[in-house]
Design goal:
This protein is α/β, with parallel strands linked by helices. It folds into two domains: 53-254, P-loop containing nucleotide triphosphate hydrolases (Rossmann fold, 3-Layer(aba) Sandwich); 260-411, Distorted Sandwich (Coagulation Factor XIII, Chain A, domain 1), CATH 2.70.50.60. 23% of the residues lie in helices and 37% in strands. A hairpin with a 2-residue loop joins strand 18 (355-365) and strand 19 (368-382). It is globular. The protein starts with 5 loop residues before the first strand and ends with a strand. Residues 385-404 have low confidence and may be disordered.
Length: 413
Amino acid sequence: MATPIITVEHLTKRYVLRHQQAPRYTALRDVLADKARSFFRSASPRLTREEFLALDDVGFSVDAGDRVGIIGRNGAGKSTLLKILSRITEPSKGRITIDGRVASLLEVGTGFHPELTGRENIFLNGSILGMGRAEIASKFDEIVAFAEVEKFLDTPVKRYSSGMYVRLAFAVAAHLEPEILIVDEVLAVGDAAFQRKCLGKMESVAGEGRTVLFVSHQMDAVQRLCNKGLLLHKGRLITSGPMQQVVDRYLQHQSSSTAEVVFPILLDDPPNAHARSLRIENPEGAPLAEVPVGSPWQVRIAFTVEKPMEGFVIAIGISTLLDLPLRTSWSHARPISPGRYEVVFRNDDIHLTTGTYKLVVGLSDQGRSLQYLPDQATITISDAGAQVADARIVNYKSGMLINQMPSSIHRMD
């Protein structure tokens, strides 16, 4: 019987969240009294503490040569699990045994020093993996060719675009021959051609008998690459086993929709803008758990802006449960100041057949992604109360219809 290359036992990760408690009264006398007391003692806001389990008693094992797809909604604990396996974050409880060299690509910038050049970071990462200079040099040309950054090799990586950063980081992680390769959804930053290139490389790595752990919301990608799967939900391991069975269980879990979704709490370094909730409504603003086929509907997204931006855009996409994109729509780029906002997207000309679809939310500023939520909300089109609508033929040959969907942004504070 083979000895597992990764063993995880009773893994738990607990965060303590602190919330500032609002005062019960806001009368002028209370404000003046608080100001007077602050002269005699340091003012400290009243805080409440809340425990949040990002991982809750997770256990599994991975054999050498396994290609494991880790799936689940945003906030399920996938990235936290990979950070612990990569020794970036310490667990609160539990035990992990890893037998082999690990290379990780978890987020843009992981493992790179921003002041060093691309060339210097290649050698730095190789040294971290325990490789000698000669061994790194033997792979150097292959890494540079794969990343397509020859012209910028001697430029500090802090000047790289997010796409260049990811290309080089993936090339280093995949080519320096670790026994275990861990890749998070960061590949979504790259373009479609580069994503295909990365998937091909991971297939090659797996074909050489090395172990791959891959987090993705693209069900076709994990089914193509992985032979085993883990499904996480709210920090707990729901099921594990053959990848197709795990995907089927995930799709069953996804098939039920609700009118409103509250997005998960951002624990680490929240972006300059982030979505708080999404609600499916009828044109009058009443929530809809299901939409009768042919009936009009709209999506209301609440979001917060932390810093002023010059070219803010919020977008919503519609895809099948297997991640085939059907449509992407976005607001007009605009300057925006800090505050709480709502945007309403109206489906004036979208006609979907009965079934369940994913709603994807993205926020960006001047073309740079701030937040991407591909796996949080679904919409169900039912045949109840079906209406006859004007027939339309849409050519989806390219896989995606990009069109401006009517939208409006309102400030809430």
